[in-house]
Amino acid sequence: MPLYEYRCPACGVFELLLGMGTAGREASCPECGTAARRLLGAPGLSRAGSPEARLIERTEATASEPDVVAALPSGPRRPARHSTNPLHRRLPRP
Ligand SMILES: [Zn+2]
Fold first, then answer.
1. 3 alpha carbon to ligand 1 midpoint, in Å?
2. Where is the Putative regulatory protein FmdB zinc ribbon domain (predicted)?
3. Please, what's the largest Cα pairwise distance for the chain?
4. Ligand 1 centre from 4 Cα, in Å?
């Protein structure tokens, strides 16, 4: 169902999830009940293709289509797990 945006003169913009073609030009505000006018624009499409929408789609896809790697990533090696600072050798050991 598409998301429609309405602007209440008192409370500001709010969104309603309505069936396709059932959104009227006005709807009562869920906060105060005042008649709010519908904002023009593509319903439910405003976030499509945006960085946050792509991130959500990619995160959801990891559940069913996780990325599989065939080899370890090339590039700089991970830092050593122990310190190479000579001063750290003087620290008391457990
Ligand atoms: Zn309102």
1. 18
2. 1-41
3. 75
4. 15
Residues in the chain, overall count? 94
8-38 pLDDT tens trace: 988 988 888 888 778 888 999 999 999 999 8
User: Nearest 5°: CA angle at 79, between 76 and 83?
Assistant: 155
Separation of alpha carbons 90 and 43, rounded Å: 66
| Alpha carbon of 8 to ligand 1 centroid (Å) | 5
Residues with CB under 5 A from ligand 1 (ion): 8, 10-11, 29, 31-32, 34
What is the spatial distance between Cα 57 and Cα 53, in angstroms, rounded to a whole number?
Answer: 6
